[in-house]
Amino acid sequence: MNEPERLEERRLVAKARQGDMTAFETLVRTHQRLIYAICRRMTGSHQTADDLAQETFVKAYFALSGFKEGMSFVAWLRTIAVNSSLNYLRLRKKEVSLDALGLEAPKADPVPARNRADEPADAVVRRQAERKFQEAVEALPPEQKSVFVLRFYENQDYGEIARTLGLSPGTVMSRLSRARQKIRSRMTGYL
């Protein structure tokens, strides 16, 4: 985020703190995709991610008075989203997502079905490996999954992850190491 964007975000946060709903709606529109993506990666479910993203913004709205000026608003939102997702995962460990049941609208396949027979073998293997990788990430315990998602999908460094999750950098590194080991073991044969 460049400096003019930071200044605009600070202005919007200040207005939202004073009760300006239009300013808060602008903040929501600006960050809704990011927050949804974090929740989706954490839960693996479109519907749950949608609900958690909405919950994140509701919590943020009611906690605006506690937002410290000068803090990064998006980092604050990210923390709320990750914590909401972790709480959800702890409470609902055995949830079956609509995606897993095949109830979500099918995604457009980049390769038309009639050309599948002509598809190079390496593309098929790559798709299988990607699917196996996603399954390995989904299988991680919530504490490891949150660190992995923030590091590899959100590209945060160890210090940012530690601040977001309220952990020490050492704990972040050990959880990330364990997550990598579990993913490697599940990816045997694909690596």
How would you sum up the global shape? Answer: elongated
Would you tell me the structural class of the helices and strands? mainly alpha
Number of domains: 2
Q: What is the H/E order?
A: HHHHHHHHH
- Could you name the ranges where pLDDT drops below 50 across 5 or more consecutive residues? 101-114
- Number of beta-strand segments: 0
Briefly, what is this?
This protein has helices at 3-17, 21-43, 46-62, 73-91, 98-101, 121-138, 142-153, 158-165, 169-186. With 191 residues, the chain is mainly α.
Describe this structure in words.
The protein has 191 residues and is an all-alpha fold. The chain folds into two domains: 3-91, Rna Polymerase Sigma Factor, Chain: A (Orthogonal Bundle); 114-186, Arc Repressor Mutant, subunit A (Orthogonal Bundle). The protein contains nine helices and no strands. Helix 2 packs antiparallel against helix 3 (46-62) and helix 7 (142-153) packs across helix 9 (169-186).
